[in-house]
Amino acid sequence: MSLPKHVAIIMDGNGRWAQLKRRPRTFGHIKGTRVAKKIITACSRRGIKNLTLYAFSTENWFRPQEEVSLLMMILRRYLKRETENLVKENIRFSVIGDMALIPLDVSDAIAHSMEATAHCTGLHLVFALSYGSRQEITNTVKEIAMRVAAGELAPEDIDESLINSTLSTYPTPDPDLIIRTSGEQRLSNFLLWQAAYSEFYFTEVLWPNFTESHLDEALHAFSKRQRRYGKVTTNDNVEKLSN
Ligand code: IPE
Ligand code: IPE
Ligand code: MG
Questions:
Q1: Domain limits of the chain?
Q2: What is the rounded distance in angstroms from the CA atom of residue 222 to the CA atom of residue 38?
Q3: Measured from the CA of 54, which atom of ligand 2 is nearest?
Q4: pLDDT for 84-132, tens place per residue?
Q5: Topology (CATH) of 6-131+174-242
Q6: Ligand 1 centroid vs 15 CA: distance in angstroms?
Q7: Nearest ligand to the C-alpha of residue 10?
């Protein structure tokens, strides 16, 4: 079975899951974090090399202050509790997103987890946190423009590979498979450039109900996809079609 090198997950539906149980949205986020923990281990054990989890978008800052603070607290607690486990599982942790907006105690916890796992050679786990792809692309354009203005680069030097290597995701390869839970079928400002040739897998399952077997279903579906990148495969009988 062909395994994606990079799986990215839009973990959606925590709020609706809690609502169905007549509990506050935060209850869903707590359960969602437990699920994330399981799925991280599952990906690591299946030999996936890169896993990006969309944990908090730039737009999520506009949620009620109370929900935002609780999400930050859950994140900090997760990192404090889990870092040792990440090391044990040989998982290297990093983040993409605008860290300037993250509360200091959380960014400290992030820095600590990154440092503690820097030597790990197994799964590379990336949290997209305070992340927005348009913002990332805007920053990339700005950075390249500044290098041009400084005379370091000529406009002719700007190509896809330069843009790629200036994005915050570099050097992680583009996601092969993007999973979104909860029935929504959109990217919500996630990895817009990087998703050019990603395979998408949408499921109605709410993130707090997502299990290892749902992950396996997604991986199985991925292995059946034919990726053509705009070309024709050797199976396509071109001559026959032109006759
Ligand atoms: C995803 O669940 C978690 C975050 C965006 C932080 P939601 O909180 O978006 O849950 P729904 O979509 O409202 O059910
Ligand atoms: C996307 O989910 C962000 C995360 C899962 C962290 P949202 O729930 O914020 O997205 P929309 O608002 O439904 O597009
Ligand atoms: Mg949502």
A1: 6-131+174-242
A2: 20
A3: 6
A4: 999 999 999 999 999 999 999 999 999 999 999 999 999 999 999 999 9
A5: Undecaprenyl pyrophosphate synthetase (3.40.1180)
A6: 5
A7: 2
